[in-house]
Model the fold of this input.
Amino acid sequence: MKRRRFVRVSSLKAGMCIDQAIIDRMGRKLIVRGTELNDYLIEGLQKLNITGVYISEGEDEPEEPKACAKAKENIRKYSVPDRAKVQLSESVKKRVSEGIQYLYSDTDSEDFVQTTNGIADDLMRAITENDAVAVDIEALKVSDEYTFKHCVDVATMSMVIGKRYGLSDEELHQLGIAGLLHDVGKARIPNEVLNKTGKLTEEEFNVMREHTRLGYNLLKEKEGVPEEVALGVLQHHEKINGMGYPLGLAGDEISLYAKIISVADIYDALVTERPYKKPMSKRDAVEMIMALTGELDITALKSFLESVILYPVGCEVKLSNGENAQVVENNDGYILRPKVVGLSSGKLYDLAGDLSCASIVIE
Done:
């Protein structure tokens, strides 16, 4: 795997390899990830007012050593499949991706509500067909473009959290719609604020905060959008302690959909890479979420911790003791501490149940 670094457009040189896709607000891919830049493409980036991009450089890193014989034996012996996860087929991913791009690029469309319901139906089927009770957001991957990926991630996570919370199928469907549209107000934020890669000024941040009201007002104009959905969009940045926006609501004043969406929204934003920030590790993101008990609904938070799979069985992780390992079982109630097998030692590490492993964490 090549190294990756962020480079200002003014410093780009012909021959550099771009390590991200460049997509316009209509969802059209202008530059494909992995493209070798030339002077024409660099000039195009400047005209788009893009201040910097990620490039890949250097030689491919050497592959990690393969699992030893004992590790292979213990991986077979101790592997326990994850709980049923939400799975989207490639055809569904394509349909969902195209649908969400259409919604955010044309909020005045006559079939806006119908399209939204269709996407929510697809996600609902993905949850109910295999009785999914967990979600691995890395496996969803419907788009390279942040806004579209983020909306589907938040909607899917919210629905799985809502299922754990005990919501009915009708409520889950509405929650999915609210998750898909929670940022739809950003379609009416000026491009110079919405697409700015640097830190927003206080004035720009206040403009950005208006996306919740703009989204609510947009949905209130749509016939067939339930009030609960519109409130979920309006209130998803409210905090239990009353320190959120736009209304400064607290506790039970905040709608249930908004409470659930808030948890999914924060987590996905933390672990997703943006041009102006690196992604936070899953472990650090969960620890930050757990520290927000004064701001987030505790039942929604608990449902999140019971629903999201950070380290799917079969994935490789790096342990703090320096050894690479493969996950063989996730421990219920301990989202950060699964059972893993060291690839070089073959040792089984029960990070939740073995006191001798108390000092070891996944890096």
Observations:
- DSSP finds 13 helices and nine strands in the chain.
- Residues 69-81+312-357 form one domain.
- The chain has three domains: 3-57, 69-81+312-357, 90-307.
- Strands lie at 3-8, 17-18, 22-23, 29-31, 52-57, 316-318, 324-329, 339-342, 348-350.
